[in-house]
Amino acid sequence: MWSSVPRLTFSNGRQIPQIGLGTYLTRGEEGISAIKQAIDIGYRHIDTAFRYGNEREVGCAVRDKIAEGFVAREDLFITTKLWNSFHSPKHVAEAFGRSLANLKLSYVDLYLMHMPMALAFRGFDEADLIPYDTQGKVACSEVDFCDTWRAMEQLVRAGQVRSIGVSNFNRAQLRRLLAVATIRPVTNQVECNPGFNQKPLIEFCRGEDITVTAASPMGRANRSDSSSGVTADVLTDAEVKRSKVNMES
After folding, report:
1. Which pTM was predicted?
2. Is the pLDDT of residue 181 over 70?
3. Which residues neighbour 14 within 8 Å (Cβ) at sequence distance 6 or greater?
4. Distance (Å, rounded) from C-alpha 106 to C-alpha 166?
5. What is the mean pLDDT of residues 148-166?
6. Which residues form the catalytic set?
7. Is 114 flagged in the annotation as binding?
């Protein structure tokens, strides 16, 4: 079924729906139902990640809607992400293969490097995703994200991924990546909202023809301030109020 959501064109010519459904914390039967309802009302871009632990739910919802004849696979845009502990080039293909199997799809539209930092590899189970050393600290890895990117490029060449991009990268990290990439990142997904507008990063990305995908575009109501333990009321923020007036005028 046709959707009225407009699409943006990436630097590689492929298109992405301008509005997408983020699925962080969306799990179980309730999650499947929510994703199916989102497709019913017009969402065509579904964003998931290995770290979210809900690729199976996304795949189930997508398969059900396709089986109903409500949408075709080519109408949908599915994004998933490579987790930090899979950055070693020798793990990238297997990590992606597991995501593809979870989703039960033959390809994904967009594969993102979830973060520019690498963690030590302990395995693919959920309990392994945040590794710790013997002192109880998060165990990092020295894998360079440029090497990770080269392995992601191979997924595009193999036809398993239509586009690749990054998430949570700053300008310096993007410059490093662009210097070595043979397939350029089409997008950088970062938190972006009236309270955290990311203007310098957005301007840089525009100059490099990198589409910025806004994560948490309306803020993150489930996150408390780390120092006070109180969730900020962003709707009363003066800058947010000013933005609302500008949008309505």
Report:
1. 0.89
2. yes
3. 109, 162, 163, 186
4. 21
5. 98
6. 52
7. yes
